[in-house]
Structures are given as structure tokens and as C-alpha cells.
Write a structure and sequence with these properties.
85 residues, alpha+beta, 2 domains, three-stranded mixed sheet, 4 helices, 3 strands, extended
Amino acid sequence: MKSTSISKFRKELSSNSQKSEAVILTSYGKMVGCYMPLTDAEDIPIKLKREFTSTLGKQIAKEFSSKKATEKSIINDFKKFKLSR
């Protein structure tokens, strides 16, 4: 398993997504994530998919709560973003 910085990984995203090797992502030398290419998403157990979705949802909700974001403000931000593209 190789290790690379987030910025280098982003620059090489196209080629990295074609490889079947997992990559540890680092920021300032500390591990911050992992890229694991999927050969077949159907091979992931449903229990693991549900746990991942639940954990991600809780993390997003915590982030929104700390920034005091409301559903209305998020929708408005998204509309502004779409118009600016």
C-alpha cells in the first residue's frame, strides 16, 4: 500500500483511479484518509454500507450543527453555487 499527500493524490487522481492499489492519504505527514478502489461495489456487505452511511451522516450533521447551518441556508448556498458554475 502506498502513501501520498492529498495534494499529490488530487493531481494524479485520474491515474490513481485506474489502479487497484489502496493509497494512504496524508496531510503534513499525518494520515488523514484512505483511498480504496472498488472492484465491485456489490461485494461490500450491506451492513458495512449502512454503517458507513450512518457514520458519514452523523459527521456531516455535526459539521452543519457547529456552523449553525439550516436546511434553508444549505439549499440557498447550493442554488448560488449552481448559478455560478
